[in-house]
Amino acid sequence: EVFVSLKNNRDRNFEKPKQKWTAFSGSGGRSLGSSKQKEPVKEEPKIEKKEFVIKVDDSKPKTTIQIRLYDGRRAKVQLNLSHTISVLKQFASNESGLSVDSFELMTSYPRKVLKDVSKTLQE
């Protein structure tokens, strides 16, 4: 058996409960030993991208590939499986601002360098 007792408090005004103090709940902004002034954020140089259009045929099988660039940025591109690695390399070149011959494309796992640029993405 369970006994439930209800008390009518409709005639009383609601009082918001006091918040309990919690450690490490502040926004912070500095660590021990740091100066009070924040250092200005350095803006990275903008890479001018050339207009690069890849035509994707929606009636054919397609995939989305994410490339991690040398500076840590990530770029996504949607391609048909019939596109070649050369097209992917040109896209990466456009996104990074590097020449096509100055970098290599690698798979994530197992790590493998994609040397034959004439192969399709499906191969």
Output the keywords:
two-stranded antiparallel ribbon; single chain; mainly beta; 1 helix; about 10% helix
Can I get a quick summary?
It is built from one helix and four strands, in the order ββαββ.
How would you explain this protein's 3D organization?
This protein is mainly beta. It is 10% helix and 15% strand. It contains one helix and four strands, in the order ββαββ. The chain has one helix at residues 85-96, and strands spanning 62-68, 74-80, 106-107, 112-113. The strands form two sheets. The chain has a two-stranded antiparallel ribbon. It is elongated and about 80 Å long. The chain starts with 61 loop residues before the first strand and ends in a 10-residue tail after the last strand.
Write the layout of secondary structure elements.
Elements: E1 62-68, E2 74-80, H1 85-96, E3 106-107, E4 112-113
Shape: elongated
Give the rounded overall mean pLDDT.
77
Strand content: 5-15%
Q: Biggest sheet: strands side by side, in what order?
A: 1-2
Distance between the termini: 70 Å
Q: Give the number of DSSP strands.
A: 4
